[in-house]
TrEMBL record:
Residues 1-25 form the signal peptide. This is Cupin type-1 domain-containing protein. Seed storage protein. Transmembrane segments: none annotated. Keywords: Signal. It comes from Arabidopsis lyrata subsp. lyrata (Lyre-leaved rock-cress). InterPro entries: Cupin_1 (IPR006045), RmlC-like_jellyroll (IPR014710), RmlC_Cupin_sf (IPR011051), Seed_Storage-Functional (IPR050253). Residues 46-187, 281-437 form the Cupin type-1 domain. The keyword Signal applies.
Amino acid sequence: MRFKILPLFIFLSLVTLFICTDSFSDQNGVVPSSDSSFSSPLLVKKDQRTPIVATEYGEISAVQIGDGYHLQFITLEPNALLLPLLLHSDMVFFVHTGSGILNWIDEESERTLELRRGDVYRLRSGTVFYVHSNEDSDKLRVYVIFDVGKCLNDPCLGAYSSVRDLLLGFDDRTLRSAFAVRSVSLRFIYVHDSISSCCFTDCIVCGLTIWKVPEDILRKIREATKPPLIVNALPRNRTQGSGEDKWQSQLVRLFVRAEDVTDHLAMKPIVDTNKKKSRTFNVFEEDPDFENINGRSIVVDEKDLDALKGSRFGVFMVNLTKGSMMGPHWNPSACEISIVLQGEGMIRVVNQQSLSSCKNNSKSESFMVEEGDVFVVPKFHPMAQMSFENSSFVFMGYSTSSKTNHPQFLVGQSSVLKVLDPEVLAVSFNLSNETIKELLKAQKESVIFECASCAEGEFAKRMREIAERKRREEEEIERKRE
């Protein structure tokens, strides 16, 4: 991560508490989990995800984060196809495992991008895209976040629409005219890399090519069983034999260049000459922003990835070795939405006391997370992530800003407390100057620290709290019975 000590006035601004989502606890905090011992309004367990698609070729599940953010977990079996979708919002994604091909259409042409483990990229609102997983790779797992905003329609449009649904939303008369089943004129169309005049009567005539349009094609399209969003990909050696196959080929010609049709139908990548616009950032191939024997971290923002410019999201990944801790810190400019990739860990989030209230109503959240769980930390909330001594702990996530973030650490060589006058700090803690000085210089490391048995200690403390709460509840039940 990139670290910078902010000016004192920003540190003092912590009296105001901003939360990345006001309704997160209402959306996800009350959903029953297989292990309710560690329920929290900041935690969504893997089994609490909402299933969207489930076929033998892949699945999609989702987590809604308040009113504005929507996570989806897309899994494609080898040689599977996520059918074309129209994005209603920006989409930033991370490739967890596997490989494949992303195809999309922008204002210039159709583009393609090879996807590999560790890739980060963004597609803009209004983009039509589809994904094909490679036949000879592991399952393609892609974690996606959408900036859906508040719903302004009833029903809500969601993050995307199926291209098939968009087309069949029109009546037959409109479609017959649009696809030239009856007489309609089309002024220009791309053929063999040139613009040619076209005239449509009972058939489509372009240059020397004549395409006959079957009268019953719209009926076949409407009567066809709607496929799920994830299907088995077309075989690469497929031959265009039937009349319906030929018609599909003709439709493709309306959207891509003639010489690209064969590769398009066979799901082969089209050569992309615009490399800058189609460059991913791979978190495993780039140098980390911070690394020591206790772990490493990397942040991806708009300075690292051109595609993130104008986006509301950045991406980060943290890898803690056994018995380590990402030191107590807060993010002053973004909420963090994290997904556990490997191992287990304990999370501590501090909810500060409101200075406008005389009551001490602050309550810290402590919970255990494991692979597949989602946890959220609002900005300005101090947090610490800890790994157990028996395994490493890896998580990635999205920050709600593509600008460079500067997490503020409370301890270590990069501690924000070191910018304060030691005497003022001593008064704040009601300690002597000497005690404060010893406290600040004791830790020689920065950012990620050795923390033997810290996670185990948090776990034990949490279990005692749960046992005590259960005891009080049972006593209350007995009292009411009396």
